[in-house]
Amino acid sequence: MLIRLLLPLLGLGTLFAWLFDPIMRWMTEIVLPLFEPFTQWLQAVFAPVGQFLEWLFNLLFGWIPDISLGVPDWVTTTLRIGMLVLLAYFASRSNLKCRQKKLEESQADSTGETAPESEGEQCQDDRQRQQS
């Protein structure tokens, strides 16, 4: 079922390639040469900045040895995406817990019961720590 949903999305690039290829050829042949002097000027202006940043990076991090484990690039990319997903999951879970505590407090207040104040204050303290 998932393949049935993804197939049209994967095929859009191929579907419109016949339209975008002539436009790209026109831009590379006609439009981009007009901007070439400007890009050369920008490269000349920013070359010293790039050399300085390269020197600074080498000074700060040049002493760290290069560790090559022979891991393919797709593994590190997948791990980064996985870490972002976990981070988003735990952030939303924390937010849902805070909302649940507030809901329980408001329900307890409406029924006349006294809810412990420390839970609500703890939720607010957590939010303040996250914002700072």
Please describe what this structure looks like.
The structure is a single chain. The chain has 132 residues and is mainly alpha-helical. It has two domains: 1-44, no CATH class; 58-107, no CATH class. It is 86% helix and 0% strand. It is built from three helices and no strands. It has helices at residues 2-61, 73-111, 117-131. Helix 2 runs antiparallel to helix 3. It is extended. It starts with a helix and ends with a helix. The model has no long low-confidence stretch (mean pLDDT 80). Residues 103-132 are annotated as: Disordered. Keywords: Membrane, Transmembrane, Transmembrane helix. The chain crosses the membrane at residues 71-91.
Précis, in short:
The chain has 132 residues and is mainly α. It has three helices and no strands.
Report mean pLDDT, rounded to a whole number: 80
Quantity of strands, as a count: 0
Distance between the termini: 44 Å
Helix- and strand-based class?
mainly alpha
Question: Roughly what fraction of the amino acids lie in strands?
Answer: under 5%
Radius of gyration: 27 Å
Would you list the SSEs in sequence order as H and E?
HHH
Q: How much helix, percentage-wise, in residues?
A: over 70%
Model regions low in confidence, pLDDT < 50 over at least 5 residues = none
